[in-house]
Amino acid sequence: MATAAKRVDFQNLVSLADDLLGVLKNKKDGDGLVQSLEGAELLQSSCQSDVDETGRVLEDYENKIEACKEKIAKSKETGLDAELEHLQHALDEKLQEEHLLRQELRAIGEELIGFEHQRVSIEERMEMIKKREKDLTRTRNLLSLCASVTNIIPDFEDTTKISGVVVDRNKKKAERFEFEMTEAPLDVCNKLWKMA
């Protein structure tokens, strides 16, 4: 700043001094000039204190910026490795969680497949039970028909021989019969007709 003040044009300075002498010759102008000089001195003093304060603040901020730059450099040297290690650890944890989640999903899928097989097995059993009940109902109806038409109730459980019961409703009596499988079917029918 001092060098800029020294570079003032000399011609302009002489002209300014002449104007100042002309003003000083007039007393009123002199008082106004004194007041102006005092105001300028006050203004210069105030500006100088502002400049000093701003210089101190700038120097403080420059020191803080330099300290931050040093911290950043140190953190880049040591913190980068720590940050990478932290990020790697976080990545490993996420991968482990994903692996566990996949295992859980696989186990749930297997359970669902097991439930589906059980559901199909239960449905098959229900179908078999319905078929057996239907067959049993048909057999009962056949037995009832045989008993009401011929008074003969065959025994279907013993398949090694032809057996059953002849029922006489009038006499309220039941007579058991048995024939060997080796006998001719015509002979068995004739004997049954005679019994009924």
- Summed up, the helix count is 4
Spans of at least 5 consecutive residues with low confidence: none
Spatial shape: rod-shaped
Radius of gyration: 62 Å
The N- and C-terminal alpha carbons lie at a distance of: 146 Å
Task: Name the descriptors.
single chain; 196 residues; mainly alpha; three-stranded antiparallel sheet; 10% strand; Kinetochore protein Spc24; coiled coil; SPC24-like
Task: Provide structural commentary.
One of its GO terms (biological process) is regulation of chromosome segregation. This is Kinetochore protein Spc24. It is built from four helices and three strands; from the N terminus they run H-H-H-E-E-E-H. With 196 residues, the protein is mostly helical. Strands 1-2-3 form a three-stranded antiparallel beta sheet. The N and C termini lie far apart (146 Å). The longest helix is centred in the middle third of the chain and has 124 residues.
Concise structural overview:
Helix content is 80%, strand content 10%.
Task: Show the helix and strand layout.
Blueprint (H helix, E strand, L loop, with lengths): L1 H5 L3 H16 L1 H124 L1 E3 L6 E8 L4 E8 L4 H11 L1
Antiparallel strand pairs: 1-2, 2-3
